[in-house]
Amino acid sequence: MRDKKKEPLRLEGKTVILEEIAPKYFPYVVEWRNNPELNKYLNQPFVLTEEKERDWYENIYLNDDTQGLMILIDRETGTPFGTSGWTHMDLAKKQCIAGRSLIGNLEFRSSLPSVECGVILSDYLYSFVDTMYCHVVTENRKVIALNKHGGYAISTADIKYPEECLVNEMTLTELFRTKEMYKRANKKWASYFPEIFNDR
Amino acid sequence: MNEKEFLEKMVDLMDTEDEIMMDSVLEEIDEWDSLSNIGFLSLCTKYAKTKVNAPEVRAAKTIRDLYGLLTRE
Predict the structure, then answer these.
(1) pLDDT tens digits, residue range A101-136?
(2) What residue in B sits closest to A146 (Cα-Cα)?
(3) pLDDT tens, residue by residue, A47-83
(4) Nearest CB to A141: which of B30, B34, B36?
(5) Are strands A153-154 and A16-20 parallel, antiparallel or unpaired?
(6) How far apart are the C-alpha atoms of A157 and A132, rounded to whole Å?
(7) Of A90, A167, B50, B52, which one has the fewest beta carbons inside 10 Å?
(8) A193 pLDDT more than 80
(9) Cβ contacts (< 8 Å) between B33 and chain A: which residues?
(10) Cα separation of A25 and A34, whole Å?
(11) Inter-chain contact A142–B58, Cβ cutoff 8 Å?
């Protein structure tokens, strides 16, 4: 198992860098996740503090190789602007749940780095899995549409993670995306964002 | 670019099955999401006569507003 403290994961794109969560980023995560403009659909029924974040990090995150949390950093300015990650990594079944996606700094909403971070992380995860899942609060139709734009489709008959579909009295919709679905979506977006997709 | 061509490009960008018209309200179109938003900015770099920035796109309320950004002199 990778020592997350000694060998933190770092993924680099043309416009964005993804660095694994570390204590220096706790203030950002706490600020973003407590922002009422941003946390309406988050699975977090409590006020997050740096102490709680540290406790989770030290006692759960560092000892669990089925999950990852990355901080999104604008390459040009070095500004941290959000998070993205995964849970339920299952190397035997070659599947995981993608999530923890949050653009905390609103200046980066609809920015190239916010687009590229999804590509960088997905490229990385698809080196381990064949299928990714995500769960979105059902009434959050825009984000469901956003995930469909990224190649996901709504799971119908075969719900892989039913326990993720009702959380803290919120009903969530499960979506799935195979590697092929991801590649097909990328083909479309490559024409809009050649600066990200060229040389991939 | 005329309005018909623009609507076709917007339908393609948003990949929506909803009928899109010039007076369609962006907030009511599920597929007008952050990816479509920045995809529209990308269209502007190809087709717009003047520079269009992200705050202007975020301020747009209708498809017609977006067309206005794309075609303004």
Answers:
(1) 999 999 998 899 999 999 999 999 999 999 999 999
(2) B33
(3) 899 999 999 999 999 999 999 999 999 999 999 999 9
(4) B30
(5) unpaired
(6) 16
(7) B50
(8) yes
(9) 142-143, 145-146, 149
(10) 14
(11) no
Average of per-residue pLDDT across A38-49: 82
Task: Tell me the average pLDDT of chain A.
Answer: 94
Paired with A172 in beta bridges are A137
Predicted pLDDT of residue A27: 97
Sign of the dihedral through C-alpha A22, A23, A26, A28: negative
Which residue type is seen at A97? I
A148 interaction partners in chain B (CB closer than 8 Å): 15, 31
Amino acid at B70: L
Does A37 score more than 90 pLDDT?
Answer: no
Secondary structure element (H or E) that encloses residue A80, with its range: strand A80-90
Query: Nearest Cβ partner of A142 from B13, B33, B41?
Result: B33
Spatial separation of the C-alpha atoms in residues A110 and A141, rounded to whole Å: 17
Cβ distance of A149 and B36 shorter than 8 Å:
yes
| A109 contact B CB<8A | yes
Identify the closest residue of chain A to B17 by CA–CA distance.
Answer: A145
Q: What is the pTM of this model?
A: 0.93
Q: Say yes or no for a CB contact (<8 Å) between A192 and B13.
A: yes
Q: Indicate the pLDDT class of residue A46, thresholds 50, 70 and 90.
A: confident
Model pLDDT for residues A160-175, shown as the tens digit of each residue: 999 999 888 889 999 9
A28: tokens are 């950002």
Helices (H), chain A: 26-33, 50-59, 112-125, 141-149, 179-192, 194-197
Question: How far is Cα A83 from Cα A35, in angstroms, rounded to an integer?
Answer: 14
